[in-house]
Design brief:
By secondary structure, this protein is mainly α. It has one domain. Helix content is 61%, strand content 3%. It is globular. The N and C termini lie far apart (51 Å).
């Protein structure tokens, strides 16, 4: 009971800190920021009904648009074509709200995951605190983006899976079904969300393999159990994925800028298109539209070779070689200062965590009582990092966000397993102090607080950060 109360108090502290870091200066700037040029425009398309095309599945934009519609928005007059364009009304506040809520809840989900992995309450608190004070995660949670929502769904799926794996009562199947639902929701935000399903199936395979070695399950029963789990995830995943496209098509009945990507038969289904009244073109059914759109999404992803001045290669991400410049405001004539927003991580957290992952890989065989936990973290990092080796399209530092969280888990696990209590507490304390100090130092670039050229230069540590 005492430990339960302690965890409640720790959660309340984390919740307050998470709200404070995500909601401070919320709504600023009242201008289009970086990828809001895409996701704000796509979300607003559901209000007008004009067809759009995106590389990612529609669920994230549907949810963001739904927030605006719930707030009473019937249309959106903002010009999303360029960064710095002003928002014409307050609908953007509601578009940004869902990613922010997801960003607030993510550290709490991580807290429960770490506890399920056998790490101490103090270790769980430190892990969540590091997520709270990680500058790049804060930035991504404050604007119209998909990544915060993806992380929330994905790590919720992992938490539910861990609860399933440790449960022996009637809730066991419920946890597994809920895990499948949340993993599917992550995949419906971005295809990269498939990594969470991959980690779950990998860990389940590992558990079945362990049971086979110990003689708990026969080979046949092991295969049947695994096949049932894979089938469950596939059925739930496809049902949710397909349903999101059904809603997507229903809310976009009119011709729009996305027509150019689609076939003539697809465009015939759109009101106002040039093929709408062409009697020689066959109208496709819903499954045909679904498969055509997904095929085109894959094709565009595969041939997307355009360069971007702030793109970066996968192997540079753990070292934060190339942050992403999101926005800059107008210079103040009196103070000669200007606000900037960068997708720039907390260097203390980035650099220590990648060192921790390497160390955990080298020392994992010595974690006898935490071998499964170490495997979970290492596998989570690798599944969310190494596949980017094979992706040729333009990529950015924010593609590393999921792997970064697993790297933070590795850092905390290593410290938590130190047997000398005083040493452990000193290291945790030092880590928190340094991380908060670093977060504070770089916070002007997180929240868009004005900086003079000299102040900016002190925060741009390397030429590649410019």
């Amino acid at each position: 009971m005492k430990k339960y109360r302690k965890n409640i108090y720790l959660l309340l502290i984390l919740f307050v800190l998470s709200i404070a870091t995500r909601f401070i200066f919320f709504g600023y700037p009242k201008e289009v920021v970086f990828d809001e040029t895409y996701f704000g425009k796509f979300a607003s398309s559901y209000l007008t009904g004009n067809y759009y095309f995106d590389l990612h599945p529609p669920l994230g934009k549907l949810l963001i648009s739904g927030m605006g519609y719930t707030a009473g928005a019937k249309t959106d007059s903002t010009d999303y074509s360029k960064i710095n364009n002003p928002y014409k009304d307050d609908i953007y506040i509601w578009y940004r709200l869902l990613p922010t809520i997801a960003g607030i809840l993510l550290p709490l989900i991580i807290f429960f995951i770490i506890l399920q992995l056998g790490v101490s309450s103090l270790g769980a608190f430190v892990t969540s605190a590091l997520i709270i004070f990680e500058n790049s995660l804060v930035v991504q949670a404050r604007f119209i983006s998909l990544d915060s929502i993806l992380l929330f769904f994905g790590f919720s799926a992992l938490l539910l899976y861990l609860l399933y794996s440790k449960s022996n009562d009637e809730k066991k199947k419920v946890y597994l079904v809920l895990s499948a639902i949340f993993a599917s929701l992550a995949f419906c935000i971005k295809w990269t969300g498939l990594s969470f399903l991959g980690l779950i199936l990998f860990m389940e395979l590992y558990e079945i393999f362990r049971n086979r070695l110990s003689g708990i399950l026969s080979k046949t029963k092991s295969l049947i159990k695994y096949a049932k789990i894979v089938t469950l995830f596939f059925i739930i995943g496809f049902a949710i994925y397909f349903s999101s496209f059904v809603i997507h098509f229903a809310l976009l009945p009119k011709t729009g800028l996305g027509d150019v990507f689609m076939s003539e038969s697809f465009q015939k289904t759109l009101v106002g298109s040039k093929y709408e009244n062409n009697q020689d073109i066959k109208v496709p059914n819903l499954p045909e539209k679904f498969f055509e759109l997904n095929k085109e999404m894959y094709a565009v992803n595969a041939r997307m070779d355009a360069e971007h001045s702030y793109s970066s290669l996968w192997y540079t991400w753990p070292f934060m070689y190339r942050p992403v410049f999101y926005w800059q405001g107008i210079i103040d004539d009196e103070s000669l200062s200007r606000p900037y927003i960068y997708y720039l991580g907390n260097p203390i957290i980035y650099w220590l965590s990648i060192g921790a992952i390497i160390l955990l890989v080298l020392l994992s065989r010595f974690f006898k009582d935490s071998r499964k936990t170490a495997l979970f973290i290492i596998a989570g990092f690798c599944i969310n990092f190494l596949p980017f080796i094979f992706i040729g399209r333009v990529m950015f530092l924010y593609h590393y966000a999921t792997a970064l969280i697993f790297a933070v888990m590795a850092l905390v696990l290593i410290i938590d397993r130190i047997s000398v209590r005083r040493t452990k507490y000193v290291l945790f304390g030092a880590l928190l102090i340094l991380s908060v100090a670093s977060f504070t130092f770089f916070s002007p670039l997180t929240y868009g607080r004005p900086l003079t050229d000299s102040q900016l230069a002190h925060r741009i540590w390397f030429p590649s950060w410019r």
